[in-house]
Each structure stands twice: as structure tokens, then as C-alpha cells.
Amino acid sequence: MLGLIRSNTQKMDQLITDLLNLSRVSRRDLQYSEIDMTQMALSMFNESAPGALKDNIKLKIDKLPEAFADPVFIKQVWINLLSNAIKFTSKKRKPKIRISGKIESLDVIYSIEDNGAGFNQHYVSKLFGVFQRLHKSDDFEGTGVGLAIVQRIIHRHCGKVWAEGVEGEGATFYFSLPVKQHGSKSDLSLIIT
């Protein structure tokens, strides 16, 4: 009984922490700076992956375009998305994660692709809601708040977030950020720094 109480207390603590993080996203002012996204993605992967899993995952990170955003919030985006990719590939014999990025029109688009549990595309609209889970908590831990935090951060940066998945085959999560523009709004000469 004490073990069950302790386990539920830890889950409640994590839920409260996640809800506090969600509320902070809306209140804190954004502090924009240039971000080396390749380095940040690698660093957040190393921070998120437990030692045994890290050695087992085949990670591929393409050279990513730099971003102009709030580094504290973008770190949280990488941590949440990479933690999910790590978690949902943990039961695969040969887990793979690929991180890539490209510039498309006025946006920089980043993607995190994995060969994990995936999800039924029919339920994609539920992914970014608070407390929405597409897998049982017995199968994969989590509070159902992480993707809601990601969405709120990206929307505050005037970007978009979306996902594609196939149940049992994996998922790809995308987020976009506006390309840094030089000069006034009428000056559309783009500079990727």
C-alpha cells in the first residue's frame, strides 16, 4: 500500500509541475535571440535520454537551420518532443529518431521522426489537448500535458505545431517558427543567421 501511495504521490507531483509549466508559458515575456538548433537538439536529447536508452537509440540529426526565438522556451519544446520520441521508441528492438529542418517560404520547419508506438491519425486532433492521451498510462508514463505546453510555446512564437503517425510504426512531430526578418514588415528580404 505504501508503494502505491508513493507512486501516486510522484505522479501527482509531476502533474502539478507540468501544469505550473503550462501556466508559466502564457505569463513570461519572450526574450528573443539567435539559437543554434542543431546544438540545442543534441544537448536536449542527451539531457532527456536515460543512459541505457541513449546508447540503444540510433539518432540522426541533420544540420538544422538556426532560429530566432526564446531559448528557454525552445529548450522546453525540444525536451518535450524528444522525451516523447524516446519514451515511445523505448519498447522497440532498434529504436530510431531523426531530427531534421528546412526553410520553407517564411517559416523554418523542424521535425522529430521516430519508429516508435505511433498513433492512430484519426485522433490527431486530441494530441495537443491538456490531459489527452492516446496510449494507456500503464504502457507509457506521462501526464498528458507535455504536447499542450509545446503547442502553447510555438503559438506564442507565431508558429505552428502538428503531427503525423501510423499506429505501431512511428510518428513525426513538426513545429515551425517564423524566419527572422530584417528591417520593417514591408521589407521581405530574409536573413537566416
Separate helix tally: 5
Taking strands numbered 1, 2, ... along the chain, how are they ordered across the largest sheet? Answer: 2-4-5-7-6
CA(first)-CA(last) distance? 56 Å
Helix content: 25-40%
The averaged pLDDT comes out at 80
Main beta sheet: 5 strands, mixed
> How many structurally independent domains?
1
Sequence stretches where pLDDT stays below 50 over 5 or more residues: 182-193
CATH overall fold name: Heat Shock Protein 90
What structural class results from the helix and strand content? alpha+beta
Order of helices and strands: HEHHEEHEEHEE
Strand elements, count: 7
Mass-distribution shape: globular
CATH homologous superfamily grouping:
Histidine kinase-like ATPase, C-terminal domain
Strand content: 15-25%
The CATH level-2 architecture is identified as 2-Layer Sandwich
Q: What is the CATH C-level name?
A: Alpha Beta
Gyration radius, rounded:
17 Å
Would you mind describing this structure in some detail?
- By secondary structure, the protein is α+β, with helices and mostly antiparallel strands.
- The chain has a single domain, classed as Histidine kinase-like ATPase, C-terminal domain (Heat Shock Protein 90, 2-Layer Sandwich).
- The chain is built from 5 helices and 7 strands; from the N terminus they run H-E-H-H-E-E-H-E-E-H-E-E.
- Strand 4 and strand 5 form a beta hairpin.
- Helix 1 (2-27) runs parallel beside helix 5 (146-156) and helix 4 packs antiparallel against helix 5.
- It is globular, with a radius of gyration of 17 Å.
- The termini are far apart.
